[in-house]
Amino acid sequence: MAGENEGPAIGIDLGTTYSCVAVWQKDRAVIIPNEQGNRITSSYVSFTETERLVGDAAMDIVALNPANTVFDTKRLIGRRFSDPLVQSDKKLWPFKVICGANDKPMISVNYKGEEKLFAAEQISSMVLAKMKEIAEAFLGCNVKNAVITVPAYFNDSQRRATKDAGTLSGLNVLRIIAEPTAAAIAYGLDKMSSGSEEKNVLIFDLGGGTFDVSLLTMVKSTSKVKSTAGDTHLGGEDFDNRVVNYLVQAFETRHKKDIRDNPRALRRLWTAWERAKRNLSFMAQTNIGMDCLYQGIDFEYKLTREKFEELNLELFEKCIGHVEKCLKDGKMDKKSVHDVVLVGGSTRIPKVQQLLQDFFNGKQLCKSIHPDEAVAYGAAVQAAILTGQDNHEIRDLIWWDVTPLSLGISVNENEMRVVVPKNTTIPTKKEDAAFTNPDHKTGITFMVYEGERPRASDNIQLGEFVLSGIPSALRGVLKFNVCFEIDANGILTVSAEDKTSGKTNSITISNVKGMLSSKDEIERMLEEAERFELEDSEHKKSFNARKALEKYVYGTRNIVVTKVQAGNLEDEIKKAIKWLEEHRDGESEVFENKTKELKSFWDPILKNF
Ligand code: AMP
User: Fold this and answer.
1) Whole-structure pTM value
2) Given the CA of residue 282, which atom of ligand 1 is nearest to it?
C-alpha cells in the first residue's frame, strides 16, 4: 500500500522508441501529456557539450548529435555484449556500444567534452525519471510508486535490469508486468465490464522495435495468457530501415553519391521518413524533402503506399506467421478467437490490418483501445489496484502470466527434472522433495535448466549452486527439498534444503551464463522438442529404467551394509555399482534386462534377511 506522502501510483509503458505514463484518477486511467503536450514521449537521451536532454527534446536533436544521442536501450537491457542480437543491432546504431566488464554492453558517449560510459539500465533510468517528472508536473505532487511494463518474453535478467532502472530513477517499482497483460487490462475494462462469459482474445502488439502476439482467455474477473509468440526484431524500425536503404540507393542513383558514411545525413533521412510514414497510413503517397542532405545536395522523393508495402510485405507476412504459431501453441482454432485487439503504433499500417483481417476471414479488428496508450493505461490500473487506490470494479481483476518453458533441475545425472511445467501461471511456488545424495558427498551441485527436453544438456542452463556442509551419508539416505519460486515480476529463485541437517542454499537467477531464454530461443526449443519427440521419449524411458535399477541396487546395498553376513552379495553389489557407473547412457532395455538379471539372483537372498 502506498504511503501517505508518496502520491498516486503511476503506470509506465517503457517502450523501445516511445514511452507513455498514466495514472488512475476518478475511476479511470488518465494518460499524462508531457511538457510539449504529447501523450507519448520519445525514449531518447542526448548528451551535448553543455547538457543532457531526455525525451522529445533529445529526439529533436538526434540528427545534429547522432553519436551522442542514445535510443533503443530496451534492446540492450539485461543482455550480454556477445549476444548475437546486440552484435547485429550495434551495426545500425549511430552511437557506440563497447564491451564492459563481465560481457556487459556499455554505451559510450561524449558528454560535456568527456567520454562517458553508461549501462542500458542507466539510460533507461533517465527515461523513467523523465516519465516520473512528467507525472509529478501533471499531478502537482511527488510520485514514488510505479508499475512498469516489459515484453512478455523478457527474461529474468531483462526484467531485473528494468526494475533496477526504475530504482535508479528514484521510483519504487511495485511490479513489473507483461505488456500484453497490461493491454488486456485496458481491453478488459473496456469490453468485459458487463457479462461474464469467457472470451478468447488475441493481442496483436506491433510497436517500434518488437512484435508480440498473445492469446488470452478472459472472463470477467480473470485473464490467463494461453500462449505467446513474436519477434524481438520486428517493428516500425525494421520497416523504416528497409525504406531508408531504398532511399539511400535512390540518392546514389540520382547523384552518384553514397551517404552511408555520413551518420548525420542518414539520421536526418531516417527521421524525415519516419514522419512521412505516418501519412502513408491515410494517404496513398507521401513526400520526403530535405535541404542540403549531403554535400549541399537537396533531396526530395515521393514514395507511394504501394512501394512501402512492397518493400515490407515479407515482414508484414512474418507477423501473420507468428499469429498462426501463437494459435497453434494455444491449441486454438482462429474461428474461436472472439476479439483481435490492436496495440502498438505500427498496427496503424493499413496493409498490416488488411493481412490480419484476411487471416481471420474478414473479422472486424478491435481498435477501441488506443494503440499507443493501452499498455500504460493497463499499468496504471494495476498500480491503482496494488496501492488500494482503485474502485471495486477493478478490484476484481486478477491478471496472470505464464512460464513459456518448463523449469527444472539436474543433480547428478543428465536428467532434467521438471519442477515448474511449461505454461504454469505465475506467480508460483513449486516444490519437489524427491532428490537424494550421492555416496558420502558433503556438497551437492544443483543445476537449474529451462526447456522441454528430458536430457538436461539439451536445455538451457540458467545457473547452478552448491549445497555444502551436508553430513556424509550413503546414497539415498538424505532427502533434499527443492523449491522454485517465481514472483509476480517473473523473477525466479531456486532453493534447496537438506531435510536432515536443515542446511539450505539458493540462487536467484540473474545475469548468469545461460540466462532465461529469449523469445527466439523459446521458439527454437519448442520446435526442437517437437522434432525430437521420439528420441526424447526413448531418453525418458531410459532415464526411468536406469533410475529403477539404481534404486534397486542402492536400496539393496543400504540393507546389506547393516548385515554382518551378506555373503557374496556384497561383491555382487559392488560389481553392479561399477556397472552403473560405466553405463550412464543406454537404451531402456539394457537397464530393464540388468534389473531383471539382478532381481532373479538377489531377491531370493534378500528374502532371508
Ligand atoms: P510503439 O512502440 O507502440 O510506440 O510504436 C512506435 C512505432 O509505431 C514507431 O515505429 C512509429 O513509426 C510507428 N507508428 C506510429 N504511428 C504510425 C502510423 N500512423 N503509421 C505507421 N506507423 C506508425
Assistant:
1) 0.69
2) 19
Nearest to 373 by CA among 416, 343, 339: 343
The cell for 584 is 550412464
* 191 neighbors 203 (Cβ within 8 angstroms): no
Catalytic, out of 56, 72, 74, 521 = 74
Q: Which residues contact 521 (CB under 8 A, 6 or more apart)?
A: 460
Q: CB within 8 A of 175, min separation 6: which ones?
A: 147, 148, 382, 386, 488, 489
Considering only CA atoms, which of 417, 447, 418, 416 is closest in space to residue 513? 447
Of 13, 17, 44, 286, the one to substitute when testing ligand 1's pocket (max ligand atoms within 8 A of C-beta) is 17
- Which of 205, 309, 497, 536 does the annotation list as catalytic? 205
Grid cell 527454437 is found at 524
Angle between helices 120-139 and 156-168 (to 10 degrees): 50
Question: Does residue 13 have an active-site annotation?
Answer: yes
List, for residues 36-87, the tens digit of each pLDDT value: 999 999 999 999 999 999 999 999 999 899 999 999 999 999 999 999 999 9
Strand partners, 133: none
The distance of Cα 361 from the centroid of its chain, to the nearest Å, equals 31
Residue 24 bridge partners (DSSP): 29
* Helices 305-329 + 350-359 axis angle, to 10: 40
> Does the annotation count 179 as an active-site position?
yes
The cell numbers describing 353, all together, are: 490490418
Does the beta carbon of 372 sit less than 6 angstroms from any atom of ligand 1? yes
C-alpha cell at 356: 490480419
List the residue whose alpha carbon is closest to atom 20 of ligand 1: 278
